[in-house]
Queue: 4 jobs
Job 1
Amino acid sequence: MRNLLMTVSYDGTNYFGFQTQPGGNTVQDHIEEAIHQLTGEQLKIHGSGRTDAGVHARQQPFHFHTTSQIPVERWCLALNGRLPSDIRVLTAQEVPLTFHSRRSAKRKTYRYSINGNRIIDVFQRNYQFHHPGKLNVDAMQQSLPYLIGTHDFTSFASRHSTKASHVRTIYDTRIVVDSSGNIPGTTSQGILHFYVTGNGFLQHMVRIIMGTLLEIGEGKRAPESMKTTLEAMDRKTAGPTAESKGLMLWSVEYDEITG
């Protein structure tokens, strides 16, 4: 028996998220079917986490146990030849049988992208939330330090969350403004990329944080409201859940993996 760790990149526009759902058409479903076509095995892969419908991934790890003896260096091309064009396996390696892509993860980073320009980018429309109104980026930046540290994030969790604990640790948050694509002669704010790194995230957590940040940027909330919302531990005190298409799982980090 072998334990293979792979990373996958996907455009989540046409899928119901990563994890298998009763209605099918998830990234996991397609990967498992590709493995079945390749090896004849009916198996379950284990992702580093789940993503919502419409959410994308730059690098999402997953692992699975297999009896196949296909050399590890051949897996990526073999699977990609059996996967839809918007799902691509990037890397593959053999890891100890005790390794688990979710339980072994130490840090995860998500990116949420906001198009702050007046006109939507037709080429990036599936990967950015379009907000043509002016946002106060300084106010948004001022609210971010309140999220750093270990807190109960109940206010920023879906009401349907089934987790026993909503305590998570956020290590870093930042907003990067990219104005390189601004069209001369237009009122453009550029693309705002919000990055957040933590030891784990709750259902809809990043999207609810983003909905709250957007209200701060619109002047509907003060930057300090991020602190009071966090302390309230009440979903009703936070902003709306931001659209899924602007969210991307950016990276997942592990300690050094040794055999």
Job 2
Amino acid sequence: MNQMFRADTDRAQEFEGRVIGMINDGALCLTVAIGHRTGLFDTMAGMAWANSAEIAKAADLQERYVREWLGAMTVGRIVDHDPDTGTYRLPDEHARVLTRDGEGDNMAVAAQIIPVLAGVETDIVDCFREGGGVPYERFERFHEVMMEDSNQTVVPNLVDKILPLVDGLVGKLERGIRVLDVGCGRGRALNSLAAAFPNSTFVGYDLSDDAIAFARAEARQQGSTNVAFYSRDVTDLEATVEAAAFDLVLTFDAIHDQADPMAVLRGIRRALKHDGVYICQDIRGSHHHHGNMDHPLAPFLYTVSTMHCMTVSLAQGGEGLGTMWGCETALSYMADAGFSSVTQYELEHDIMNVYYVCRP
């Protein structure tokens, strides 16, 4: 007899209920992402009780789609519904974490990761069977979503929380230093710094031509002349970067998914002046599966690793370290790359990442 038929019935039923919850929550991630992208949450946050037609009109959307979306939001207990009047409202407590003007982080931004990853599911299944990886260009809207995430996690905290990890760094930026951002994406963090510190000069590198084009356009729009962006593969940074050219190098969740993380780290080490500093934001977690059992975002992060970070590295013939390469691995790589001092910090505003301050 098959072993599974002798399973504990209560445990099996409990797990079945958990799987049903997973399916429902996964589906809600898709509809929450739609609510964010269409502006429905933002619209409803400013409204009293309203019916589907009124909500659709206020959001300038099609009523039939809004009505069905409201069904998902109602049964998902995200939106309140009064069946007697046929009206709906977004509770203030929910608006706080699902709108662009909420007091905390907009969690609907993170929900968008699920449909982005779902778009490459078939490619990932093929990789399970045949090996290889899925390249960056297959991920639609990836840089757009990452920019939104950066707007919450990195940009508003740069000057007050991240840069002060290094004593005197803000003062040096005010006086004027050279800064490099490796894996800058759409450049939102670097453009923010360029505007805040006009006496310093800033350079951003990223593999994506589209992301670099966006960053350049934004720099022009804000009138920054002290920032430049370049589309390039940073795998050869160790051999091509100008030695001792930068006072500060930054990476934001950009090392673990590189094709050759060690070469990039060595290139960063080469790029730094002898008294320079490297600030690396990367994923907080353990290299060991059992070490992440209590991590609040571990299932999400391993899924992101399987369907993005690991596979884009493998697509370039890389190591495929994955999102959960772990703090142990990160510290080992940084030491092997030639950094003599690495200090690790956890910041209250960011439960997903750890910050490393590295010196040559």
Job 3
Amino acid sequence: MSKLTRLKPIIRLSVGNPETDSNSVFGRGIASLCLGVRETGSLNAAAKGMGMAYSKAWRIIKDTEAALDVQLLYRNGAHGSQLTEDCERILEAYQAIESDLQAEAERRFQEALKR
């Protein structure tokens, strides 16, 4: 078996707002942060779980919200945070598309190696 068959393509999906000049997009990092908020109910806990400072997580959320013109989190001070309905929908679509693209890329990569 060729060592090449162990290799896999890595798909990096981003969702952006074409009506803005911002470089902030909804990608793997913000998706992971949002999943952490969903699991823990806290942006601070999600940030710590990713080895990230709360201030950096806060800035990433704010920048992404501004770029997308979509509120991602409901923040309730000491009571934590939760994902907005819009964020849940973006996250669900993002995960589904990323999974489909990854599976297709892996299939096509293995097919191309056989040529």
Job 4
Amino acid sequence: MGHFSISDLENISGIKAHTIRMWEQRYGILRPVRTQTNIRTYCDDDLRRLLNVATLCGQGHRISKVAQLSEQELASAVISCCENPHDYARQINGLLAATLEMDEPQLNKLLSGAIRQLGFEDAIMRVAYPFLQRIGVLWQTGSINPAQEHLVTNLIRQKIVASIDTLTPVQPSQARRWVLFLPEGELHELALLFMNYALRARAHHVLYLGQNLPESELQAVYKAYRPHAVCTVLTAVPDRSQVQAYISTLATQCSDCTLVLYGPLMNCQNLTLPDNAINPRLMTDFLACIADVGNGQKR
């Protein structure tokens, strides 16, 4: 069971702390307990209720009316209202509430609806990506379990793979060529998989090698495929102390192409980038630089 401070609730729900306090004191929507040092802490049920209340209030319902709903009435009202394709905050809160309930049909309905109404790429960037950031906060605070996290990531993975299959393939000889892979031992694939989609949607050819590629295999692939760019995502691997050495080795192996390095391990320390390497900090930065990567490379 999670134990949240009011600042945790603010960060996860997007509702300001002073509003949460008012709702708690005036309407009793939350039931915090106090620590021995008299600090309020909130549990998973408080978070779930807050997400549902925020979803309905964001649609214009009065808090005085919402506070009177039972848990079942509140959940039913939320399910029926997460339909506006441009109300991203409400969709994200709906996804979070469905995750906490392990409600796979509702998760699938919300994600599929966002994709249908916004288009795949906008749905990922505006709904799924911020949703996953919130999931990360819940994971860090111990408020979701591995089964809930796996449910979310595998469902989004399925959506990405299905969308990739709808794209028209291009021939490698007629397109800019990319190798996408994760280092040996790295299993966090969603960002790389979305990059695969984004590149293919822009008529690039991708050799997608996926998770857990031994370093020794990359050089043979590089020589055979001769890519314009090689891209990897560093989330948990290699060890922080080995990141600089790892990217230096990659830059040497892939010396005559652009090396695209993305992920948390690239953002949390002072690294010296090789001349042929770039580090897009955000996924929006990666999408913006796709057209420029590989220009001027001789093949």
